[in-house]
Amino acid sequence: MKLPAYFKPAVAAISTLYLTVFSATITLAQSVQSVPKTATPFPELGQLIANVVAIVIFLAALLVFIFLLIGGLQWITSGGDKAAAQAARDRITSALVGLVIVVAAFALMLIIERVFGVSVLGGFNPPTAPNTVGRPG
């Protein structure tokens, strides 16, 4: 099975982002001596899942936007080459199909929230740092 040409750079970008976030988490975790139980941003498993789902949907939409930009730039720079223009159209088409999938997944989660009364996406609150602006420290 031959993978598309844009697959390797996409995997490299995602793995680089993951490693950057993971290494920053380890560094931050090593610098914190003790964290009180009340300071955890996700006291419940449901809240953690809701946050993860919201972040995944956001990242998927961001990737769709990036692939649309790349496809548009490829189309502009194809210079009349039919193969390059077709590759750009295929990339744009794939990005739009991905956008439809992301929107459908989001709509499905909203339907699940309404029908079953479960909060899948409601209450997404990213953890924040205390406001210490203007305080002597």
Explain what this protein looks like in three dimensions.
By secondary structure, this protein is an all-alpha fold. It has a domain at 45-124. It has 3 helices and no strands. The mean pLDDT is 75.
Keywords:
single chain; 137 residues; mainly alpha; 3 helices
Radius of gyration: 21 Å
What structural category characterises the helix and strand content?
A: mainly alpha
- N- to C-terminal separation? 59 Å
Number of beta strands: 0
Mean pLDDT: 75
Secondary-structure element pattern, one letter each: HHH
Low-confidence stretches: none
Q: Major β-sheet, in short?
A: none
* Beta-strand content bin: under 5%
Gross morphology is extended
Q: What is the helix fraction of residues, given as a range?
A: 55-70%
Count of helix runs: 3
What is the element layout, followed by pairings?
Layout: H1 7-31, H2 45-76, H3 82-116
Helix pairs in contact: 2-3
Q: Concise description?
A:
With 137 residues, the protein is mainly alpha-helical. It has 3 helices and no strands.
